Predict the structure.
Amino acid sequence: MNIPYRAICVLSCCLWCGTYAMTSTQPFDAGGKRGNQSPVIASDFGFLRAEPSKKQKQIVEVSGIKTKGDATVLESAVVDALRFCNSLSLWQYPGYTERVMSRVTKRGAESLQWPPHYGANKIVPLGPMRLSEWKIVSDSELSVRVDYGDMGPNGLLKWPPIVTWRMVFLKQDGTWKFDHYDQ
């Protein structure tokens, strides 16, 4: 029996895709939704080098993101998470408390902790140093480790972090909002 090479390729692809569909825990979605379980590659994180918040995204580490679907969720959440974390560190300045409260859920407002002041006179606010260890739970829930640290005299953050929280964000009305701390 002589089967053309092209037919063998088509049959093997059909068999592989069928096996994938039966063993996958989430539906495959080639349109870029979370269901896309293809391995992530460097170009999937191109959004970290683009506006908005291009400079602030430099503190984002993509640890924990293993699939293209997870990268898509991260892309939709990263700016909101950064804005919340930055506003949280500046809460004592006029207008920032309102900004923070506009980025939290009702549950988040009840459990919210403010970063402590630091330094000899305890007036230096801690700033977010790194967002890492992302865990994408669903298209509308994720958690991330956020490290807060002290700004040095040259404007750079000093390592190691002073406060580390695992924050959970939920997507509500198209915006990612802080919901609670995960231990």
